Amino acid sequence: MDPISELLAEAKAAATALAGMPTPDKWRWATVTSAYPDEYRVRFDAQTTEHPVIAPEPCRPGDRVLCARMGRQTIISKVITRAWRYPTLLNGWDKGDGSHRELAYRRQGDLVFWRGVVYGGAGVNAICTVDQDCRPIDGLAAMNGGWGTENRNIRVAADGNVLLSNSSYSSSWTSFDGAYYSVV
For residue 140, which of 150, 121, 122, 153 has the smallest C-alpha distance? Predict the structure, then answer.
């Protein structure tokens, strides 16, 4: 079975189990536009209006989702791609001159993936803080970043602070491209 067929079969099973209704016939791709505790809204591909949906798992604006129409309700059956989150840089860390991607991260399952670069900073002070759902359960995660041939050890602490493990790397570029860690 090809990956798209597997994904559709998995989404159909999830939607049926959650709704207790017959398997839906109509599937639509959408992007989450707002995610308030009591109301999620999506914009379907090739449309300009937003529509309310039922979301059985937490979603964020920007997430790509597969929706199933069941009677008069639309249910998010599967979150396909999580949106990138752009953290606020702290302690003199900067995104640079705009010639490189801005620092961002996203959670996919139990993994948190990073991209982008930062510059400057002040010693071993926090570069940024990650959201609660992206913090390592055991209290510390380590990943490698770098610039050129230099490896940089990057740590994510239980409080969500992202730090370089060596202050000699401050005031230079640090790339997060390809870095990731597990939250479990």
Answer: 153
